[in-house]
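Open question from group meeting: does this chain pack into something compact, or does most of it stay loose? Before anyone orders reagents, we agreed to write out a predicted structure and look at it together. Recording both the input and the output here so the notebook holds the full record.
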Amino acid sequence: MYIEFFLIIIGILFFILSLLEIFYLSSLQRWIRLLIQCVCLVVLFGILLFYGITPISHPPASFSVLERCLFLAMSVAAWWTGTRALIILVRIIVNRKNDHNEVRILSDVLSGLIFASFVVLAISFLCEVPVKGLVATSGIVAIVIGLALQSTLSDLFSGIAVGIEKPYRLGDVISLDSGVSGRVVQVNWRSIHLQGSDHNLIIVPNNLVAKAQLINRSLPTPMTSQTLDIRVHPAVPVERVINVLKAALHGCHHISHAPSASYIDCLTLAGDGTVFRISFSAVSYGHLVDARTEVFSQVQRHLFHSGIPLTVKELYPQEEWTARLLSPAELLTRSELFCSLSVASREKIARVMQTIELREGQFLFQAGDAPKSLFIIASGTVKTIPQKRMNEETHYILGPGESLGVVALITGHPYNVTARALSVVHGFQLDAAHLAEVIDESPELAKELEISVKNAIEVMAKAEQADVAKMNNSSQGFLDRLKKMLVKKGASE
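Structure tokens returned:
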């Protein structure tokens, strides 16, 4: 009697251990949890077999009602531990390579089918109902439920199909043919969650994902590409527009400059304009917004300074294209260095500026050269390379309307960067001797130039790595240095 009571207590304790594995031991590794369920299964089966009872048969009629109920409960508990062990084994097999949400959906569905089978068999065993009749009844119920949950079930099985195919992973950037795009942040039974470029959360049902044409922009590399179409005046030569747009892309810092990462195509030739497609790539999806904004900015700047107007579709331009670049006075007006000067001062400086033209790869000046002029770019791009790092990445890229050589000219120190043309460059140079002559004629220009240089000193320091901290910050000291340098330059000339 005591042995029977002890064995029943042991069976209850091991069944409780089986339940604890679900609710309190889920943090353990799966193989440890599988081992716990197997031990519980062996113990429960052993107790049943000790009394000559198999888990698929009812206790003998000679047992009391209480004993029959206890052993029936123990049989169901044995079936439960076996079911739980099988579920854990399925999860181990299905998730043996990864534990992504897409794979979890499949393992959850298989686990649900196993549990549903356990419920059917348990009811059939306890109530002594034929399995066929119970399955038929449950099948009718399943049809009714399936019709009511048709959309949800479609999302469920679509999620399983997508999970098996694995067209994307968490963190990947995808685009659907409906125009929806974003980074995958969550995958569940019903839908996937995407984080758009505007940081909004987009929820897409799995059945739509399974039917859509999907582009994974994170594979095989995380580089993300985008295109931009522009329409320009039909009279502008195609080759010239392509060269200007290439120069604009050279001036972008947020796009990839790897081979074939960006290119320009001419799509159509028509009376209302010539359409060009600019394709560029950002190093990752997170940089795409900054890259797109920068491309817009550089394209607009280069087209404007190259005298290439944009046109509107089906609106034929009435004015002829003149191919006129900005004049020196117009460039000075738009220059960060000279824009604060008076109109009269800018006109005086513009009269003494000289035209320059560089081929692609030609040097404007090299590090260590004595400063004799400052330069303003009218069109094209120039990159500056630090003196001691000639083989490293480009330090800074200058485009239309920007100036260089100013700090060296003002301080009298040699150029500390090398400036080389990335494309055909048109621009203007202002010699120190000519500037000195203008200041001699108009002494007030020196004061204006002092204020202007101080306002733009951050831009110049960024462009040429000037050590502005060492410069004398006093207004009079700066003015004296400027005048002495100009007088010296004028006398040497």
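Observations to bring back to the group:
DSSP finds 16 helices and 16 strands in the chain.
Confidence is low (pLDDT under 50) at residues 463-479, 488-493.
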